[in-house]
Design goal:
Blueprint: H1 6-32, H2 34-47, E1 52-58, E2 61-71, E3 79-86, H3 94-105, H4 110-140, H5 145-148, H6 152-167, H7 169-181, H8 183-194
Antiparallel strand pairs: 1-2, 2-3
Helix pairs in contact: 1-3, 2-4, 3-4, 3-7, 4-6, 4-7
Amino acid sequence: MRRPSPFAIFVMSAFGWMLALTALWTQVSAWTSYPVGILSSMALEQGAPMWVREVHLRPGVMDVDTRVAIPVPSAGGRKAEFTIDVSPARYAYGLPIFLALLLAARGPRRLARAAIGYLVLLPAQAFSLTLYTLMQLVLTAQLDVKLLRIDPWQLEALVYGYQVGSLVVPTLIPVLVWLWLDRQFVAKVVVPAWRPSASATPSP
């Protein structure tokens, strides 16, 4: 029976680790993503003070008190400020992806590299969470640029940033961080599997 290639073993191992670590992550994500909430709350309070009054953070939940007042139909048209509740772990699922790749590669000093990768991922996860929170604020204000006191191009930039932060960053950055930390393994196992050496190709 033909033995699977090192790359095939890596792929199967990574898939198995990803399932196991994702199940574990769902149980501890409130704590592992707490630093993400800290970074995001700082970005919201310092970067959008015209919208954000105060951020309250506890494990698993981030409450954002806004300065944006919207009309309340049941209150005779009077306006009221609103609060947004978000989970800091919403876009932090890249952590089990990164750890699965790291463990499947079975390289040396995995604990140290896992710690480095965790710290490197935090700003990217905070970026996604911050843009998601701002987008929820904008949607609650019904995309009203006058109510939000911004220009249309600023709204378009926010929407674009939200799309990048929600669709690209959560899955791409963990892979890029692993490629950087495990580049020797990538060069030895992954690259040859995707680009066979010229010596393996019969000469004409």
